[in-house]
Every structure is written in structure tokens, then in C-alpha cells.
Specification:
- Pfam families: BPD_transp_1 (PF00528), OppC_N (PF12911).
- By secondary structure, this protein is an all-alpha fold.
- The chain contains 13 helices and no strands.
- The protein has a single domain, classed as Orthogonal Bundle (MetI-like fold).
- It is elongated, with a radius of gyration of 29 Å.
- About 0% of the residues have low confidence.
Length: about 325
């Protein structure tokens, strides 16, 4: 009995790299496309379902704030319309017990104590105030923090020492007491009060991003691309805003999304203490303050604005965490 030749694995023909990667005849070769850092970050962010959920909630709340008059027209009542027939003066100005704050098909979130105003309209219009103050304060704080932080980190020396000591002083200051003292003496108009609240929040927020930008600038100013810019005669302004700033976009963007919820809570705290936005302009913090006297009778008065603040703050925090992971090249996702 004869046996045929035995072929080992080493004798088998192994395709070369060129053959393995070549395309079949008649099929056009597919060009290899590189991906930018933005595309890589977006791909990573799309895989983070928690961050996308937070972003969806943020978009929803922003749309509610923008279209509050339209929404209120169909689902609520005029913002300053009193409904005395919905409250019982003998009970201290609250609805009848067991009605959950007066919730019904006509008043989706009940009515406000004493005044009887629609809580639904107060909540959706209050979202406007919270987002306006928080976003405005964040923009001002980011501008101050970036300009001063990048200047201190690049120039060093006396400039760095002066800016760093200023940041330490502001961070050590009792900001809540200062805010109460300052806001209580400003002219009693809604526009002035909102402007001062934005100024106070941004003034006490910029040192945090200033420290982050300063630290990043200290590590970037010795990099090769900065030395190359100096060698071709680039001045400090060009190096700061054309070379360094583009490399700081990621941490600035991440910190901005994380400081917004802090500013929302800051504004609510000031309104809770009575030095925030003036009535009758709706404010979630003032709704919480008004509910202090009534939550033992009906917890809905504290639960509704508290839940609104909780959802908005949580959404920004979840999105900020996801954005940080997407922009961090060292993150293992």
C-alpha cells in the first residue's frame, strides 16, 4: 500500500502581505482615510449611552426654556394669574389636604401656596432663568479664566505669582457672605439683579478654570511646536492664541460643561436665601424657599422644584463626564 506525499503546514503556500491586502480584480481599491481628533472623540462619545442620555435631557430642557410661552399656552396658565379658588385660606393658603398640592388635569404640577399660581408655568419659566444665569456666568468665567490662566502659565515669573495669589485669594473668600452683602445693596430691578448675580457667580468661578489652564500651559510652553514658533519670530500674542489655545480646547470644553451645574446650584442658593432673582420672576430656588413653610403639610411643594434642579444638574454632570472621557486620549473605553 503506497501512501501519497504528506504535506506539512510549513509547506503550505502562505499568501504574502501584498496578496492578503490586495483587492480582487475589477474592484476599486478603498482609500485609507485618517480621522481627526474630533472624529475620534465623537466616535467615543456616541458609544457612551449615559452621556448621550444626559445630552438628550439637556437639549429637552433648553427647548422647554426657549418655547416656554408656547408650551404654557397649551398646558399651563398665565404665569402671574392667581387662582384663589384652588387654595383654602383657613389652611394657611394651601389646597385641600390629599390633593398633592392641587395637582389636576388643569394644573399638572399643582398650584403655588398663598398665591394659587400655576406651578407648571413657574417651573418651565424658571428653567429660563436658571439656564440664562448659569450659561452667562459660565461664559464670563471661562473667558476670564482662560485669558488670565494662559497668560500666567506662559509668562511665569511675577505675572504668574500675581495671578496665582489672586486666584488663591478669591477661592479663600467666603463667597456666599460676599454675594449676600453685595446683591442686597444693588438697585432693586430685575435686570440689575440678574446682571449682578451673573457677575458674582462668574467672579467666584473663574479661578477654577484659571488653575486648570495655567497648569496645562506650563506643560505646553516647553513643547517643540512652541519653540518652533519662537524660532520663526512669532510674538507672545500669536503663541498664546494661535499655538497654545487650540491645544487647550478639550480641557476648557470639559470644564465648561461641569461648571454649569455648579452655577445652577449657586443661583438657586442665592434665590433660596432671598438675594437672587426678584419676584415675580420665577426661580427654582425661590420656589424651594417658599416651600419651606409648607412641606410638612404637603411635600409636593418642595419635591417639584427640587426634582427640576436635580434633573438639570445630573444631566449636565453625566454629559460632562462622558465628554471628558471622549476627549481624553488616555481613557480606556
Amino acid at each position: 500500500m503506497t501512501m501519497g506525499p504528506v504535506t506539512s503546514k510549513s509547506d503550505e503556500q502562505v499568501p504574502s502581505v501584498e496578496e492578503a491586502t490586495s483587492t480582487p480584480p475589477g474592484v476599486p481599491a478603498k482609500a485609507i482615510e485618517g480621522r481627526s481628533l474630533g472624529q475620534i472623540a465623537w466616535t467615543r462619545l456616541k458609544r457612551d449611552k449615559v452621556a448621550l442620555t444626559g445630552a438628550s435631557v439637556i437639549v429637552f430642557l433648553v427647548l422647554v426654556a426657549i418655547f416656554a410661552p408656547v408650551i404654557n399656552k397649551f398646558l399651563g396658565h398665565p404665569i402671574n394669574e392667581f387662582h384663589q379658588d384652588k387654595i383654602n385660606p383657613s389652611l394657611g393658603g394651601i389646597p385641600e389636604p390629599g390633593t398633592w398640592g392641587g395637582i389636576s388635569k388643569d394644573f399638572l404640577l399643582g398650584v403655588q401656596p398663598v398665591t394659587g399660581r400655576d406651578m407648571f408655568s413657574q417651573i418651565i419659566y424658571g428653567a429660563r432663568v436658571s439656564l440664562l444665569v448659569a450659561l452667562s456666568a459660565t461664559v464670563v468665567a471661562v473667558i476670564l479664566g482662560v485669558v488670565l490662566g494662559i497668560t500666567a502659565g506662559y509668562f511665569g515669573g511675577f505675572v504668574d505669582s500675581a495671578v496665582s495669589r489672586l486666584m488663591d485669594l478669591i477661592l479663600a473668600f467666603p463667597y456666599l457672605l460676599f454675594s449676600i452683602a453685595l446683591i442686597s445693596v444693588v438697585p432693586v430691578t430685575t435686570a440689575w439683579r440678574i446682571g449682578v448675580v451673573v457677575g458674582v457667580i462668574s467672579f467666584f468661578s473663574w479661578p477654577y478654570i484659571g488653575r486648570i489652564v495655567r497648569g496645562q500651559t506650563l506643560s505646553l510652553r516647553e513643547r517643540e511646536f512652541v519653540e518652533a514658533a519662537r524660532s520663526v519670530g512669532a510674538g507672545p500674542t500669536r503663541i498664546l492664541f494661535r499655538e497654545l489655545l487650540p491645544n487647550l480646547v478639550a480641557p476648557i470644553l470639559v470644564y465648561s460643561t461641569l461648571v454649569i451645574p455648579t452655577n445652577i446650584v449657586f443661583e438657586a442658593s442665592l434665590s433660596f436665601l432671598g438675594v437672587g432673582v426678584l419676584p415675580p420672576t420665577p426661580s427654582w430656588g425661590r420656589l424651594l424657599s417658599d416651600a419651606v413653610n409648607y412641606y410638612t403639610y404637603d411635600p409636593v411643594y418642595m419635591f417639584v422644584p427640587g426634582l427640576a434642579i436635580f434633573i438639570m444638574v445630573l444631566a449636565f454632570n453625566l454629559f460632562g463626564d462622558g465628554l471628558r472621557d471622549a476627549l481624553d486620549p488616555k481613557a480606556n473605553r
